[in-house]
């Protein structure tokens, strides 16, 4: 499952790399899903990627459904990340792999000029996208995911990118 699939580019890339995977993508925006469908059709992946309109916080799937769950920049816009992650845990199979990528705001310790530029950009992003800081590491630990991959890339301007992956532990 791809949470907050947007234009489905991540699902498409993953599907092209691993031929035995089928995806269900979820997005709250019907407009994004229209673009996604165009991309999926263009890549002839319509038999392997199915998208549906929905909210990550209320996943309309039975318990223990998915082997792998990805979300790339999908959680930053979710209103209640902990509630949403509970849903992720519910629909994940025991031992499922969960891989998330998300941006985090940079610490406020840069020079005054860059700080001001950054504050303005951040204000614009907040206004349009309602960006929220999600601490993926904390979230994964809270739900006892067995983390086996953690990449943290620092960026001077937009903040840092965390990519984290691990296995669900339902015991
Ligand atoms: C920054 S985009 C990322 C899209 C895609 N994962 C990518 O990396 O290209 C975030 C997406 O999450 C969707 N989204 C935001 N809140 C959501 C929610 N509560 N439930 C489902 N999708 C949501 C937005 O509509 C948007 O398409």
Please give a structural write-up.
- The chain is of the alpha/beta class and 171 residues long.
- The chain has a single domain (2-105, 131-167), classed as Vaccinia Virus protein VP39 (Rossmann fold, 3-Layer(aba) Sandwich).
- The protein contains 5 helices and 7 strands.
- The protein has helices spanning 9-17, 30-42, 81-91, 112-129, 136-142, and strands at residues 2-3, 23-27, 49-53, 66-72, 92-104, 146-155, 159-167.
- Strands 4-5-7-6 form a 4-stranded mixed sheet. Strands 1-2-3 form a 3-stranded parallel sheet, covered by helices on one side.
- Strand 4 (66-72), helix 3 (81-91) and strand 5 (92-104) form a beta-alpha-beta unit.
- The two termini are 22 Å apart.
- Bound molecules: S-adenosylmethionine.
- S-adenosylmethionine (SAM) binds at residues 4-7, 9-10, 26-29, 32, 55-57, 72-74, 77-78.
Helix/strand/pairing category: alpha/beta
Give start-end ranges of low-pLDDT stretches: none
Assembly category: single chain
Give the amount of beta strand, in percent: 25-35%
- For the record, give the distance between the C-alpha atoms at the N and C termini, rounded to a whole number: 22 Å
In N-to-C order, the SSE pattern is EHEHEEHEHHEE
Total strands? 7
Tell me the count of domains.
1
Biggest sheet architecture: 4 strands, mixed
Q: Please name the CATH architecture.
A: 3-Layer(aba) Sandwich
What ligand species are in this complex?
S-adenosylmethionine
Layout of helices and strands:
Layout: E1 2-3, H1 9-17, E2 23-27, H2 30-42, E3 49-53, E4 66-72, H3 81-91, E5 92-104, H4 112-129, H5 136-142, E6 146-155, E7 159-167
Parallel strand pairs: 1-2, 2-3, 4-5
Antiparallel strand pairs: 5-7, 6-7
The site of S-adenosylmethionine has 19 residues, from helix 1 and strand 2.
């Amino acid at each position: 499952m791809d949470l907050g699939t947007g234009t489905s580019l991540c699902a498409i890339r993953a599907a092209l790399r691993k031929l035995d995977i089928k995806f269900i993508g979820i997005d709250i925006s019907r407009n994004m899903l229209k673009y996604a469908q165009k991309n999926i059709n263009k890549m002839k992946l319509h038999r392997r990627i199915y998208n549906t309109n929905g909210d990550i916080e209320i996943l309309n799937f039975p318990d223990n459904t998915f082997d792998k769950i990805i979300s790339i920049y999908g959680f930053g816009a979710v209103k209640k990340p902990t509630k949403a992650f509970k849903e992720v845990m519910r629909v994940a199979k025991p031992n499922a792999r969960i891989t998330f990528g998300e941006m985090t705001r940079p610490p406020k310790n840069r020079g005054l000029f860059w700080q001001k530029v950054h504050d303005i950009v951040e204000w614009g992003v907040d206004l349009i996208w309602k960006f929220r800081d999600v601490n993926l590491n904390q979230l994964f630990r809270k739900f006892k995911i067995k983390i086996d991959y953690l990449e943290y890339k620092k960026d001077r301007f937009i903040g840092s990118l965390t990519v984290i992956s691990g296995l669900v532990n339902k015991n």
